[in-house]
Write a structure and sequence with these properties.
Radius of gyration of chain C: 25 Å
Helix content of chain C: 10-25%
Number of domains of chain B: 2
CATH superfamily of the largest domain in chain B: Periplasmic binding protein-like II
Oligomer: heterotrimer
Strand order of the largest sheet of chain C: 7-8-9-3-10-11
Largest sheet of chain C: 6 strands, mixed
Shape of chain B: globular
Number of strands of chain B: 9
Shape of chain C: globular
CATH topology of the largest domain in chain B: D-Maltodextrin-Binding Protein, domain 2
Radius of gyration of chain B: 22 Å
Order of helices and strands of chain B: HEHEHEHHEEHHEHEHEEHHH
CATH topology of the largest domain in chain C: Rossmann fold
Strand content of chain C: 25-35%
Number of strands of chain C: 21
Helix content of chain B: 40-55%
Number of helices of chain B: 12
CATH class of the largest domain in chain C: Alpha Beta
Low-confidence stretches of chain B: 1-6, 25-32
Structural class of chain C: alpha+beta
Number of helices of chain C: 8
CATH architecture of the largest domain in chain B: 3-Layer(aba) Sandwich
Distance between the termini of chain C: 36 Å
Strand content of chain B: 5-15%
Largest interface: A-B, 45 and 53 residues
Chains: A mainly alpha, B alpha/beta, C alpha+beta
Mean pLDDT of chain C: 85
Distance between the termini of chain B: 61 Å
Mean pLDDT of chain B: 87
Structural class of chain B: alpha/beta
Chain lengths: 548, 341, 362
C-alpha cells in the first residue's frame, strides 16, 4: 500500500456557540446549526417526563403574560381603547421607536468597527481592547446613566437616551459579532480576494453577510433591553413605556392603565421579534464543510493606526472610563460616611441569595426544554420554546405586574415571599438559561448517552450522568447570565421583593433618585464588582474553543 | 471522583437553596409573631428613625416595606383583608383617603387622636396626621427676581411660563398638590390647568431632580415641598445653593399644606403594637425627631414644635382643605387625560 | 505564454522558518504539484504566490510581471490568479450562480451566459444554479469552486489540497474532472497536496518540499526512478532504502550484490530499490539445492489488497534466524503469487538500484 504523509489535522464542526452569541442567534429561533438530531431517542418514559416538565415550565411562564392580556379583556373594549389610544401613548410610542431606531444601528456600526479592530487588525493590545469592549456590561445600565447625569446634570431626552443606551449595551452586539468574525473561515475572504474583489468590498460582500445572524440576534437583544430598561431612562427624564408603567404602578398599583400600557409594550416586543425573524430570513450561514483550522489574517492598519487607537480609546473611555471615574469620585467625595456596612452587607447578602437561587432554578427549569429541542424536536416542543422566548422578551415590569395580581388573588401564601420574586426572575431570564443549556447540550453527542444506556444506565440516569455533566460551560454560562440579570434588575424587584429586603439595585435606586449620588456610590461599586466575574465568564465563553 | 464531586456539589446547592427558602419563610414567621410590618410611603430615613426610636424604647421589632403613596394605597386595597400590613404611613393624604374609603382602617383610640392637632386629622378618627409639608415655589435666585415670581399657582398656566417651570407629575407629592387644587377650584379649572402644565412644564422624575434642575438653571422654578431645600442645605447644599423659596400664601392652592398620614389596618394581627407605634410617632418621641432630625418636615403633634429653620405653619396662610376629602383617583384620571401620566 | 518564476522565497513566523530560499519555475500551460509533509511550507508557498501572505525575501514573477519583491507585493485582488481553497469555500449566503459569477462585473451583459458556460465546463447540471451551496455534495462544491475561479480567466490557478476533504471514491472522479477542465482550458496550475496519487496523476512536474526547502523538482517519472533523497523516494512510492558499500558499479547491501546506476562512486552510500524490483519465490525448505543460492527471508505479514498484495518479509541470517539488524522489507506481489504467512522465500533483485547523491539532505 502506498505510503502517505500524515494528514493535516482538520478542525471539528463549528465551535459551540456559547454565551451571548448563542443568546443572540437563538433569540431568533433559528440558531447556528447544532448537531442535527437525527437520532431517535429511545427512552420513551424519559421523553414523556421531560416533555411534561417542559410543558409545566412553559405554562407557568405564560401565566403573568396571560393575566395581563386577560386584564385588558376584562376592562372592556371601551375603557381599553380610551386608555390605549391617547396622546400620551402616542408620545411614548414615538420615544420608544426613535430610541430603538437610533440606538440599534449606531450600536451595530460601533460593534462592527470595534470587533473588526480587535479581531481582524493588528491593533496593539487587541486582547485588552477586546476585554474593555465587553467591560461596559459589568456596569449596570442605570449606573451608566447615574454617572453621566452626575457629570452633566442637564442631560436628558432622546440624545442622552441614545448615547447612554449605546454605551451601555453595545457589548451585546460586540460579543456575537467578534465571536463570529473570529470563527469566520479566512478561506472565504481569500477566495473573494483571488476573484478580484478589493479588501473593503470583500468585507461588505462576504464578511458582513456572514455576520447577519449575529447582528440580528444582538440587535434584537439590545432592542428588547431598551424596551425593558427603567433605571437608565428614569434618571435622564426620558419617558418610555416601562417608565410610564412604573409611574402608573406608583400611582395606581395595578390599575387598568398600567395593564394597557403593558399590553402595548408586549405588542412592541412581538413586533420586534417579527422584524428580527424577517430580517434573519431562513438562510443558513453556518460554514459549509469542515474547513481548516487556520487563524484569520490580521490586516495592517498602517497610517490609520493612531486614528483607530483614538476611536478605541474614546469608546472605552466613554463606556467604561466615565462610569468608573465618576463612581470613584463619588466614593472619595462621600468619604467614610457612606459606608454603612450593616445596610450594605444586608443588601449584598440579599442580592447574592436572590441571584444564586434564581440562577440555579432558571438553569434547572431550562434543562428539559433545552434537551428536548436538541434530542427530540417536534412541533409541540418548538411551540413551547417559542413561547418561552416571547415571555422572556417581555419586560420584567409586565411580568411582575401580572404576577402580583395573580398572587394576591390566588396564592396569597406566597405573596411577598421569595417564591414570587424568584418565580418572576425565572420567567424573565429563562431564555438566557435556555440558550446556554441548549448550546451545550448540542455539543454533547447523543452517542454518549446511548453508550451510557447500553452500559446499563436508564435513560434518565444517562441524561444526568452524561449530558448534564458534560457541558459545564453551558450550565455555568446559564448561571452567569441569569445571575448577572438578577443583580441588575430593578423594576420587577421593587414590585415583588419580600418585606424588609433590599437588593443592591434597590438601594442604589432609592439613593440616586434622591440625587444622593455619594450614598449610592458604594452600591454601584459593589454591583460592578459583582458583575465583573460574570462578565469575564461571558467574555471567555464567547471565544470559540479553537482559539485557546 | 468527578461523579461524587458533582453529586456533592449539587446536594450542597440544593441544601443551601432549601435553607435560604426556609430562612426567609422562617423570618417571616418570626416576624409575624414578634414584630409589626409598616407599609411606608414616607421618606425612608424618617420612618427608619421613627422605627429605631420606637424599637429602642419598646423592644418591638419593626419591618418596613417601602413604596410610594398611591402604589401602596392601591396595594392595600387590592390585598383587602388579607393584607399583611399593620400600619400604613404616607407622605400625603389622598392615599389615606383611598384606603379609608375602602373601609380598611381600624378606628384609633382617643389617646392617639388627642395627640394630633385637629386640622391634621380626619373627622372619622380612622387615621391621623404624622407630619406635614407645605407647597413652595423653589426658584433660581439668579434667574428670577421677586417681582417676576408667580403670585398664584394658577399663574403657571400662563403661556409666558412655557418651559420655565417644572415639577414631578408622576410623584405622589405633586398629585397631592393637584388634588388640593381640585378640591379648591373644581374639576374644570383643574383640568385646564393640567393641560396648560403639559405645555409649559418640564416633567422631572422626583422632587430632588426638579430642585436640581432649578439649581442648575435648566428651569427657573419648581413646585415642590419645602423640606427638599432645607434637607439639601443641611448637607452639602450643592443642589440648592442657587435657590430661594417662594411661599404663595393668600390661601392660594400653591400654599397647600399636605398632611402625611398614619393609620392602623383593620386586618392587623398586632393591633396593640401597631397602635403603640402610631402613638409614639404622634407623641413626643416621634415629633421630636421631626424637630431635631434632618427630615425638615413639619410637626403635627399637639404642642410639638417644628424645626426652627422652617417658616412656622401659622405664617403660611394655607388654604383650608379637608385632608380626608382629597380625591387621588380623580387626579390621576385628570392627569392621564392631560397626557401627563 | 505565461510562466511563473519563484526565486529565493523566504518566510519566517517568529522562530519558525516556513520557507528557506525556495526557487521554482513553472512552465506555461503545465501543472506542477507541490508536495510535502504538513509543516513543510507548501501552503505558505501557495499563499505567497496568491498574494495572501507576504514573503520576507525573494521574488515572484508571473508572465514577466513582478508580483512580489521582498516585502513589496501586489495585493491579491490585483493578481488575476485563481484560487481554489481546501474545501471550496463557497459563499454560503449566495446561490450557486452568484457564487460562480462573484468575480464577474454585475452589469456585464454576458454574465449569465458565461456562468452557464462555466457550469457546463465542470460537468454539472445548470439546473442547480439556483440552489445554495449547502445543498450540494462535497465533490460538486469543489467543482463549483473551480468554475468560480475560472470565471475570470486567470493567468494561473492555485489549488490548495482540493480533494483532501472528499471521500475516497469521490476523490478520484473529481480529480479527473478537474484535471480535464484545466487541461482543456490550458491554464498553468499549481496544486498543493500531500497525496502521492494526486501528485503523480495530476502533474507534469512535481516539487517536493520539506522544512521549507525544495528537495527536488522534476517530472514524476524522474522523481520516482531517481530520487535525490530517501524522503523524496519514500514520498513517490514504496521505497526500500538500504545502506550499502559501492564499488565498480555494484552495491553490497543486505540484499546482496546489486547493480547500481552510478558507476563511478565508491565507498559507503545509501541506495534505494522499488518493491517491484525485488522478486521472491517460495522455497521448499527440504530441497537443499533451492536453499543454497540467493538471500532468504521469512514472510511475517501478508496484506491482501485485491490485485496487488503487500507482503512483509524479514531477512534471515546464515543460521536461518531472523536477522535482527536488518529492517523488515515491504514487497508487493500479485494476488495469485502471494506466499503464505511464515513461508521462507528467496529474494532476488532485478534492475539497478539508485544511489542517492552525495549532497543528500533528508
Amino acid at each position: 500500500m502506498p505510503q502517505r504523509w500524515p494528514k493535516p489535522v482538520l478542525s471539528q464542526a463549528p465551535a459551540s456557540p456559547t454565551g451571548l452569541l448563542a443568546l443572540a442567534s437563538r433569540l431568533g429561533q433559528v440558531g447556528l446549526r447544532p448537531r442535527p438530531a437525527h437520532h431517535e431517542w429511545r427512552g420513551r418514559p424519559a421523553l414523556r417526563w421531560l416533555t411534561g416538565a417542559a410543558i409545566l415550565v412553559s405554562l407557568l411562564a405564560l401565566l403573568p403574560l396571560t393575566f395581563t392580556s386577560w386584564a385588558a379583556i376584562q376592562t372592556g373594549w371601551g375603557t381599553a381603547a380610551a386608555l390605549i389610544f391617547r396622546h400620551r401613548v402616542g408620545e411614548l410610542l414615538v420615544n420608544t421607536t426613535l430610541l430603538i431606531a437610533l440606538a440599534v444601528p449606531i450600536s451595530t456600526a460601533l460593534a462592527i468597527a470595534l470587533a473588526w479592530l480587535t479581531e481582524r487588525s493588528d491593533l496593539p493590545g487587541a486582547r485588552l481592547w477586546a476585554w474593555l469592549a465587553v467591560a461596559p456590561l459589568a456596569i449596570p445600565a442605570f449606573v451608566h446613566s447615574y454617572a453621566w447625569v452626575s457629570i452633566i446634570p442637564g442631560l436628558h431626552g432622546l440624545f442622552a437616551g441614545v448615547m447612554i443606551s449605546t454605551l451601555a449595551y453595545f457589548p451585546f452586539l460586540y460579543l456575537p459579532i467578534a465571536a463570529a468574525l473570529h470563527r469566520l473561515d479566512p478561506a472565504l475572504e481569500d477566495s473573494a480576494a483571488a476573484l478580484g474583489v478589493s479588501p473593503f468590498r470583500v468585507f461588505i460582500r462576504v464578511v458582513v453577510p456572514q455576520l447577519r445572524l449575529a447582528i440580528c440576534g444582538g440587535a434584537l437583544l439590545i432592542a428588547l433591553h431598551l424596551l425593558a430598561e427603567f433605571g437608565l431612562y428614569g434618571l435622564i427624564r426620558f419617558d418610555t413605556f416601562t417608565t410610564a408603567i412604573m409611574d402608573q404602578f406608583q400611582s395606581t398599583f395595578n390599575g387598568p392603565a398600567a395593564y394597557m400600557l403593558a399590553n402595548v409594550l408586549v405588542l412592541c416586543c412581538l413586533a420586534l421579534l417579527a422584524i428580527e425573524a424577517a430580517a434573519r430570513g431562513d438562510e443558513r450561514y453556518a460554514r459549509i464543510g469542515p474547513g481548516a483550522a487556520r487563524m484569520p489574517r490580521r490586516a495592517k492598519l498602517g497610517r490609520a493606526l493612531p486614528f483607530c487607537l483614538l476611536l478605541m480609546s474614546a469608546v472605552t473611555f466613554l463606556a467604561v472610563g466615565v462610569p468608573l471615574i465618576t463612581l470613584a469620585r463619588w466614593l472619595i467625595v462621600g468619604g467614610a460616611g457612606i459606608w454603612r456596612l450593616d445596610q450594605i452587607g444586608a443588601a449584598l447578602g440579599e442580592t447574592v441569595l436572590l441571584a444564586g437561587i434564581g440562577g440555579i432554578l432558571a438553569t434547572l427549569a431550562a434543562t428539559p426544554m433545552a434537551w428536548l429541542s436538541i434530542r427530540a424536536p417536534n412541533r409541540l416542543q418548538r411551540l413551547l420554546e417559542g413561547t418561552n422566548y416571547i415571555v422572556g422578551a417581555v419586560p420584567g415590569v409586565v411580568t411582575a405586574l401580572g404576577l402580583v395580581t395573580i398572587v394576591i388573588s390566588f396564592a396569597p401564601f406566597v405573596y411577598q415571599t421569595i417564591v414570587t420574586i424568584v418565580a418572576a426572575y425565572v420567567v424573565m431570564f429563562l431564555p438566557r438559561a435556555l440558550i446556554s443549556m441548549r448550546a451545550s447540550i448540542a455539543q454533547a453527542p447523543v452517542e454518549l448517552e446511548q453508550a451510557a444506556c447500553s452500559l446499563g444506565r436508564s435513560p434518565m440516569q444517562a441524561l444526568w450522568a452524561i449530558t448534564v455533566r458534560l457541558p459545564p460551560p453551558g450550565a455555568a454560562a446559564s448561571f452567569a447570565l441569569v445571575g448577572l440579570g438578577i443583580t441588575n434588575e430593578l423594576p420587577a424587584t421593587q414590585m415583588l421583593v419580600p418585606n424588609g429586603v433590599q437588593t443592591l439595585a434597590m438601594a442604589f435606586w432609592s439613593f440616586s433618585s434622591e440625587l444622593d449620588y455619594a450614598a449610592a456610590a458604594p452600591y454601584a461599586l459593589i454591583m460592578v464588582l459583582f458583575s465583573l466575574p460574570l462578565t469575564s465568564l461571558l467574555y471567555l465563553y464567547s471565544k470559540p474553543s479553537a482559539s485557546r | 471522583m468527578k461523579t461524587i464531586r458533582c453529586r456533592s456539589i449539587t446536594t450542597l446547592l440544593a441544601v443551601a437553596a432549601l435553607a435560604a427558602f426556609l430562612h426567609c419563610g422562617g423570618e417571616r414567621a418570626v416576624a409575624q409573631s414578634e414584630s409589626i410590618l409598616v407599609y411606608n410611603a414616607q421618606h425612608r430615613s424618617l420612618t427608619e428613625a421613627w422605627a429605631a426610636g420606637f424599637s429602642n424604647e419598646t423592644g418591638i421589632k419593626v419591618t418596613i416595606r417601602n413604596g410610594s403613596d398611591s402604589e401602596m394605597g392601591n396595594q392595600i386595597v387590592q390585598e383587602g383583608a388579607a393584607s399583611p400590613a399593620d400600619i400604613f404611613l404616607t407622605e400625603n393624604s389622598p392615599a389615606m383617603a383611598l384606603v379609608d374609603t375602602a373601609g380598611l382602617f381600624a378606628p384609633l383610640p382617643a389617646d392617639i387622636l388627642s395627640q394630633v392637632r385637629e386640622s391634621f386629622r380626619p373627622a372619622d378618627g380612622r387615621w391621623v396626621g404624622v407630619a406635614a409639608r407645605t407647597t413652595v415655589f423653589a426658584y433660581n435666585k439668579n434667574k428670577l427676581s421677586a417681582a417676576q415670581l408667580p403670585k398664584s399657582l394658577l399663574d403657571l398656566a400662563d403661556p409666558a411660563w412655557k418651559g420655565r417651570w417644572g415639577a414631578s407629575p408622576a410623584g405622589a407629592d405633586f398629585q397631592a398638590i393637584v388634588s388640593a387644587l381640585l378640591a379648591i377650584k373644581g374639576e374644570a379649572e383643574t383640568a385646564a390647568w393640567l393641560k396648560a402644565m403639559k405645555q409649559n412644564a418640564v416633567a422631572f422624575r422626583g422632587n430632588v431632580a426638579a430642585m436640581k434642575g432649578v439649581n442648575s438653571g435648566e428651569i427657573e422654578g419648581a413646585v415642590i415641598y419645602q423640606y427638599y431645600y432645607f434637607g439639601d442645605q443641611a448637607r452639602t447644599g450643592e443642589n440648592s445653593n442657587n435657590i430661594a423659596l417662594h411661599y404663595f400664601r393668600n390661601r392660594d392652592p400653591g400654599a397647600f399644606v399636605s398632611v402625611s398620614g398614619g393609620g392602623v389596618l383593620a386586618s392587623t394581627k398586632h393591633a396593640a403594637q401597631a397602635q403603640a407605634l402610631l402613638k409614639w410617632i404622634t407623641g413626643k418621641g416621634g415629633q421630636d425627631i421631626l424637630r431635631t432630625g434632618n427630615s425638615y418636615e413639619y410637626a403635627v403633634g399637639v404642642g410639638a414644635e417644628s424645626n426652627p429653620k422652617l417658616v412656622p405653619l401659622a405664617e403660611l396662610d394655607a388654604p383650608a382643605v379637608d385632608p380626608s376629602k382629597l380625591n387621588g383617583k380623580k387626579v390621576i384620571e385628570l392627569m392621564m387625560q392631560a397626557g401627563l401620566l | 505564454m505565461k510562466a511563473l518564476e519563484l526565486q529565493g522565497i523566504r518566510r519566517r513566523y517568529g522562530a519558525v522558518t516556513a520557507l528557506d530560499g525556495v526557487d521554482l519555475s513553472v512552465p506555461a500551460d503545465s501543472c506542477t504539484a507541490v508536495v510535502g509533509p504538513s509543516g513543510s511550507g507548501k501552503t505558505t508557498l501557495l499563499r505567497i504566490i496568491a498574494g495572501f501572505d507576504a514573503a520576507d525575501a525573494g521574488t515572484v514573477v508571473l508572465d514577466g510581471e513582478i508580483l512580489t519583491d521582498g516585502a513589496k507585493a501586489v495585493p491579491a485582488h490585483r493578481r488575476e490568479i485563481g484560487y481554489v481553497a481546501q474545501d471550496g469555500a463557497l459563499f454560503p449566503h449566495l446561490s450557486i450562480a452568484d457564487n460562480i459569477g462573484f468575480g464577474l462585473p454585475r452589469r456585464d451583459p454576458g454574465r449569465d451566459s458565461r456562468i452557464a458556460e462555466l457550469i457546463r465546463m465542470v460537468d454539472l447540471d445548470p439546473a442547480i444554479l439556483g440552489r445554495r451551496p449547502d445543498e450540494l455534495s462535497g465533490g460538486q462544491q469543489q467543482r463549483i469552486a473551480l468554475a468560480r475561479a475560472l470565471a475570470r480567466r486567470p493567468r494561473l490557478m492555485l489549488l490548495d489540497e482540493p480533494f483532501s476533504a472528499l471521500d475516497t471514491g469521490l476523490r478520484a472522479i473529481t480529480r479527473q474532472a478537474v484535471a480535464r477542465v484545466l487541461r482543456e482550458a490550458r491554464i498553468t496550475t499549481i496544486l498543493v497536496t500531500h497525496d502521492q496519487n494526486e501528485a503523480l496523476s495530476f502533474a507534469d512536474q512535481v516539487a517536493v518540499l520539506n522544512e521549507g526547502r525544495l528537495l527536488q523538482v522534476g517530472p514524476p517519472r524522474e522523481l520516482y526512478l531517481h530520487p535525490r533523497t530517501p524522503m523524496v523516494a519514500e514520498f513517490m512510492g514504496e521505497a526500500i532504502v538500504l545502506s550499502a558499500r559501492l564499488g565498480a558499479g555494484f552495491a553490497d547491501c543486505a540484499l546482496g550484490r546489486v547493480p547500481v546506476d552510478d558507476c563511478e562512486r565508491e565507498g559507503a552510500a545509501r541506495v534505494v530499490l522499488r518493491p517491484e524490483q525485488v522478486k521472491f519465490a517460495e522455497v521448499d525448505q527440504q530441497d537443499p539445492q533451492q536453499a543454497s543460492t540467493g538471500y532468504f527471508a521469512k514472510v511475517v505479514e501478508v496484506d491482501f489488497g485485491g490485485a496487488i498484495c503487500s507482503v512483509r518479509v524479514r531477512l534471515l541470517n546464515a543460521t536461518g534466524e531472523i536477522n535482527a539488524d536488518s529492517p523488515p522489507l515491504r514487497l508487493i506481489a500479485a494476488s495469485i503469487e502471494t506466499p503464505q504467512l511464515g513461508a521462507i522465500v528467496r529474494i532476488t533483485v532485478v534492475g539497478k538500484a539508485h544511489v542517492f547523491p552525495l549532497d543528500e539532505r533528508s
